[in-house]
Amino acid sequence: AGLRDLLSGVNKYSTGVGRIWVAVVFLFRLLVYVAAAENIWKHEHDEFECNIKQPGCENVCFDHFFPVSHIRFWALQLIMVSTPSLLVVFHVAYRENREKHHNQKLYKNPGKIDGGLLCTYLISLILKIGLEIFFLVLFYKLYNGFKIPRHVKCDIKPCPNTVDCYISKPTEKMIFLYFLVATSCLCIVLNLSELSYLMFKYSIKCYLKRHVKNQQ
């Protein structure tokens, strides 16, 4: 609920591309995560089976191949990439409080993206892009690629020899993995597009202002 309120708050101050980003995060990431992905990975440890019943063998093999639960990883990623948007919300709140404190109109529109708020908005976009890329790279490193193998070979102690371990519902998990990676890439593209659009728009605006000043 807190994440949903944050996203709807950000939506008020976003550009058109920013609103698409909010829709993608809310519909294709948050809802898919809550409605489907969480159920698929719910019993991943219980359903991980090795062809030997040596005490502790299954646990160490599971920990080796899944150092972080996919579900917790995506929950953390979702929270982290949405958090930079708070900078924009706080900046607008600061502007509104400042007007209340001085009891006069200090800004044409406190929620309009210009001046200091533009800098905050651009910083939030850069942070979101950086965090998305960081989490994609981290996932790739942790799991040796974007894949869910059907079975893995494990020879870590206390396993007496190389044992075969089997992962439950690998095809279903792969589909959701590709979907979540694709939406993460889509969010990077949207954030880059919005960043480019805002920088271009305000560069043109500054150039025209300078040009008018020179003409006068």
UniProtKB/TrEMBL annotation:
It is found in: Cell junction, Gap junction; Cell membrane. InterPro entries: Connexin (IPR000500), Connexin_CCC (IPR019570), Connexin_CS (IPR017990), Connexin_N (IPR013092), Connexin_N_sf (IPR038359). It is a multi-pass membrane protein. The keyword Transcription regulation does not apply. Residues 39-72 form the Connexin N-terminal domain. SMART domains: CNX, Connexin_CCC. Belongs to the connexin family. The gene is Gjb7. Keywords: Cell junction, Cell membrane, Gap junction, Membrane, Transmembrane, Transmembrane helix. One of its GO terms (cellular component) is connexin complex. One of its GO terms (molecular function) is gap junction channel activity. This is Gap junction protein.
